Write the structure tokens for this entry.
Amino acid sequence: MSSSNACQASGCELMQLVSGVPEFEFNVLEMSRRVDRFESGQDIFSQNSEATGLHCLRSGHAMLTHVDAFGNKTAFRVVGPGEMMGYRSLFGDDVHTASARALTSCTVCFFPKVSLFGILDTTPILVRRFLHTLARDRGPADGLLLRSQHTPVRVRLVYLLLILLNDYGSKLPDNSIEYRLPLKRHDIGSLIGSRPESVTRAIRELEHDGVAFFRHRNVSVPDMARLFAEANISVADDST
């Protein structure tokens, strides 16, 4: 399978954005592509390093983290196959404001800034598509919600499951939801700003109350209404 076909198969955000652009510009972008591989724990890019291009995750999972001026590290997003990384800093003409670390073995497509910007200069529709993507990007906003010290760890864990629902949750015939999370227990703690023992205690509480059941990286939610209720979110009746 070619690089472009592999990216299209993974639902690559960039391939969706460039669909329909003139063939010459598309080929220029394809020829500039570099494919890199990272093992679990390796940095794909580091905070404060120069943003020299756009990264698109072809396979695997990565985590975005930010370290503030006081040295506090905040994990705020899990990136899955097909998603772009580093474009906020790239288009802001700034250094990377976050680090991207491989959670699993990852294959990453890298598109140099000079090639991407050259195409943007001649393709207005692509500029509009990127602007739309930037406008919808919440950045670290979810991280602030997840790490609020005014919110119980149990509720923060529920927030995380709700945020990851679209990408990692699958609805079963009995209407329950099953997750296959790309996160280890300590990664969950990092995302919600809690110690591993606090995460373990919250998991036991959710299991005891029948809200969610955890087995390694697999999570089963028998009734999504109860999960939403934990986060004080009402669920519309499917019949309406």
